[in-house]
Amino acid sequence: MNFKYTQWDERFGKGGNKSPFETLWNLFQELLTISSGDVSQALRWLTELDKEYQITEQFDEDYSLGDFMDDLKDRGYIEQDEQNQIVITKKTERSLRQKSLEEIFKNLKKGSFGSHKTQHTGKGLERQPETRKWNPGSDIGQIDSVGTMLNMLNHSSIDNVNLQEDDISVYDTDHYTSVSTVLLIDISHSMMLYGEDRITPAKKVAMALSELILTSYAKDSLDIIVFGNEAWEISINDLPYLKVGPYHTNTLQGLERARHLLQRKKFSNKQIFMITDGKPSCIIEDGRLYKNSFGLDRKIVNKVLDEAVKCRREQIPITTFMIASDPYLQSFVREMTEANKGKAYFASLDDLGGYIFEDYIQNRRKNVK
After folding, report:
1. Are residues 185 and 150 in the same domain?
2. 248 three-state secondary structure
3. Which residue would you say has higher pLDDT here, 170 or 220?
4. Same domain, 271 and 342
């Protein structure tokens, strides 16, 4: 497995005001995500980091990696399975999702992606400064009392104060709507290629988005589909263990499965988010894998475009997050986006989470008068 190495951050070692366990736990979770939930591998990497950077020697108290292991067991983060292998628990899976969510929202707060406001307003949850005339069905709790009084005084006198229906104004509010989202994740071999780890950021985004929906938008639905030579559904609990494989890229089957899944959803608002770094390079034809890794095979591409059109006809927009800068690959994304009338972002790995969260939150709002 190849990784993109960066300069060591001393904060991992010193930990600020964090306890020794918290400092190591923060680093260990990062290693678990990279190792796809492999506890043994993550511990080996942690041991190597400790030897090189003397992490445990910087603690004020005597605390070793052995103590850290004991605490992981005592706190219910790791356990032994039936084969006596050390594995992570459901508690750790949830903690990894929460950590990913905190990391992405921390980056969003820096203001890189602007406000989450929509241009549309209507009956909903968040009051806007703009007002409009009251109409039957408007929320009386949103009446603009000052504006209403001024409207009334415009045609009233001291002796004759007359409130008319047209005088009443109400505040506009953002409206939040339930939405069904399918997140498509490319797990073809190119997602871990030339020393650049692209699958780990994709996993973090998926874990963070799932945690956001589970904790804040319980009425929404999120389904996750991965695609390589074929496409299949995975559960939220499978995300920490997600790995790339020696696969080609069957974008067609990924989109087909996503569309069929959304057909069964009751919500009128449906969308597909697709994270990929490459072109479609294979399809299933007559039960056999047809593949072509060289260039854009029009036989493959045209079938993907046909599927994008089917999604458009069923009012399922596709938002593609292309984490590659090759203009040759971007041309395909533009072609597919035009066929679907969807959207595309050519995002760096650092920006990926921000773009997806921005888009998801915006798509939860609609105009209701």
Report:
1. no
2. coil
3. 220
4. yes
